Amino acid sequence: MKTDGSGLSELAAIPLNDRDGPLYRQVYRGLRQAILEGRLAAHSKLPASRSLAKHLGVGRNTVTIAYDQLAAEGYIAARTGAGSFVAETLPDPVPGEKGTERKASTSRPALKLSERGKALLRLGGARRQAPVARPFAAGQPDPDAFPFPVWSRLLARVWRRPAAELIHNDDPMGYAPLRHAIAAFLRASRALDCDAGQVMVVSGAQQALDLICRVVLDPGDRVWVEDPGFPGVDGALGAVGGEIVPVSIDGSGLDVAYGNRRAPDARAVLCTPSRNYPLGTTMSLQRRLELLRWAEDNDAWIVEDDYDSEFRYDGRPLTSLQGLDRAGRVIYVGTFSRILFPAARLGYVVAPPDLMPALVAVRTYMDGHTTLITQAALAAFFDDGHFSSHLRRMRSLYRARRDCLLEALARECPSASVISAAESGTHLVIAPPWAGTDYGQDTGKDHGQDVDMSATLEDAGLTCPPLSRYFRESPGRAGLILGFARFGEDDIRSGIRRLAEKMGAVPKVV
Questions:
Q1: Distant-in-sequence, close-in-space partners of 142: CB < 8 Å, separation ≥ 6
Q2: How many helices (H) and strands (E) in the chain?
Q3: By three-state DSSP, how is residue 65 classified?
C-alpha cells in the first residue's frame, strides 16, 4: 500500500489512551506495527506530521518525536523536500511483541531479550529524548547563566599538568578532593552527618538509583514509591525485579500510614522529602520522623533523593532525612545537573559506612568510576569559591522568574489555581479553571482533559506536561506543569499570554 500523505484512514486505528505511557511512544508503536505488518509497505509515504497529528487528536510535536524515533531505528527515511517514507529494509523487531512479523527477508536471527529487558524497553529507555528548550519545559537550568569561561579555565588549569592521581586513578568512590568538597557542602547546607568516606561520585541521580537498587534489593522485593512521582525510578526498580508499591502524597508528603497498611513488608522507600515532583510538596517533620521510625522497626532502607533542595526562596529548609537518621537507614542521593548543566553528568551517593563496601564492589563491575575530567574541574570550582557564588546567583535569578510567573498567572489566568508549593524548586503546577484544587481530588470529569490541553499547547509552542500523567494508580488530578528556571521574564510573560488564550478556548466540563 502506498499513500501520498492523505491516506490517514489506515493510521486512524492507532490506539491511544492514558495508561500506556507517553503519547509519542504510543504513536511510535502504532506506526512501527503498521510497517512490520505490511499495512505500510516499503517506499510508502507517511502523512505530514501536522496532518497525522490533527487526525489522531494529538500535538504535532508528539508525531514529530515518533517520526524521529522511527527514523533513528531505521523504519523510515526522511527525504529533504519530499517527506518521510517507509524504509526498504527493516530492522529486526523486538521479539515477543504481537504484530511484529518481519516482512523483509534477513539472514540474521531475531534478537532474544530477557523478560526484564523487554519490560525496560517498553518503559522507553532505549532512546531518551532531549528536552525542548521552550516555555515551560521543567527541570532545565539556564545555560546562559552558567560561567562557562570560568569552567573552561579550570579545565585547562587542571589538565595542563595533570597530577598522577588524575591519570591513573581508578577509585570507584571518585576523586578524593571532590568528595571532601561535597561532604563539606552537604554538612553546611543540608545538615548531613557524613564525611568524604561516605560519598561516592556517580554519573547523575539515575545511576545512583540504579546502583543502590542493585545493592539493597532482591527480585520481588516491594518498594514504596511516591504517587504521583518521578517515573525515572521505574527503570531502576525494573532492572532488579523490584515490585513498585505506589504510596499517595498529601499536603504533608508521603503518607507513611497508608504505605504501612498497604505494604508493611516493603524493603525500601524511594522518596523526595525536600520537594516532590511534580506536586512540589515538602515532607513535614512529623512525617520524616514517622518514616525513620518505620524504616528502623522494619529493617528497611530509605533512599532520599534531595530533589531541588538547593533552590529554596522563602523560609528555612527542613533538615534532611539523612541528618535526622540515627539508625543508618537512609541513603542520600543528589545531582549537580540542575546547578551546573545536564551534560556535566555528575551526581553523588551518601551511604551509611557499613553499606559503602557493597556499593564499591558493584560499582567496580558497572563502569569503574565517573570520568575524572569533570570531577577535577568541579573540585576546583568548589575550592575557588565559584560554586557557592554561582548557586547564590541562581537562587536570586530563579526567584525573580518564579515571581514573574506568579504575577503573569494572576494577571492573565486569574481563574487558574497554583496547586504546588511555590517557596522552592524550579517549576509550578496550575489547576485550570475546570479542574479541582484539593490534593487527590478526582471528579471523574476532568481526567484526561489536561492531556488534551497539553497537546494543544504543544501546537502553540509551549511545553506544559499534564499532571495526571504522573499518577500511577488513580486516574489522577488534572493540572499543567510549568517550569520557569530556563526562561527569561519576557518569555515567561509572552508564554503565559499564549497559555491563557488557548486555555480560554477549552470548553468547561459539565
A1: 394, 397, 485, 486, 487
A2: 17, 13
A3: helix
Evaluate whether 16 touches 24 at the Cβ level (below 8 Å). no
**CB proximity list for 220: less than 8 A, separation 6 or greater:** 241, 242, 243
Q: Are residues 198 and 68 in the same domain?
A: no
CB neighbour class for 125 (10 Å; exposed up to 12, middle 13-18, buried from 19): middle
Check whether 442 has a pLDDT greater than 50.
no
Same domain, yes or no: 339 and 352: yes
**Position 80 confidence tier, pLDDT thresholds 50, 70, 90:** low
pTM, two decimals, is 0.78
C-alpha cell at 74: 531505521
Residues 15 and 109 in one domain: yes
> What CATH number is associated with residue 293?
3.40.640.10
Q: Whole domain around residue 185: which residue ranges?
A: 146-385
CA 349 to chain centre: 18
Number of compact structural domains in the chain: 3
Residues contacting 409, CB < 8 A, separation 6+: 416, 418, 428, 430, 496
Would 118 be classed as within a structural domain? yes
List pLDDT tens digits, range 246-278: 999 999 999 999 999 999 999 999 999 999 999
Which residue, chain included where needed, has cell 484539593? 438
For residues 493 and 401, the answer to whether their CB atoms sit within 8 Å is no
Based on its alpha-carbon atoms, the radius of gyration of the chain, rounded to whole angstroms, reads 24
Residues 239 and 107 in one domain: no
Q: Are residues 108 and 203 in the same domain?
A: no
Q: Which class for 175: exposed (0-12), middle (13-18), buried (19 or more C-beta within 10 A)? A: buried
Residue 170, amino acid: D
330 and 250 assigned to the same domain: yes
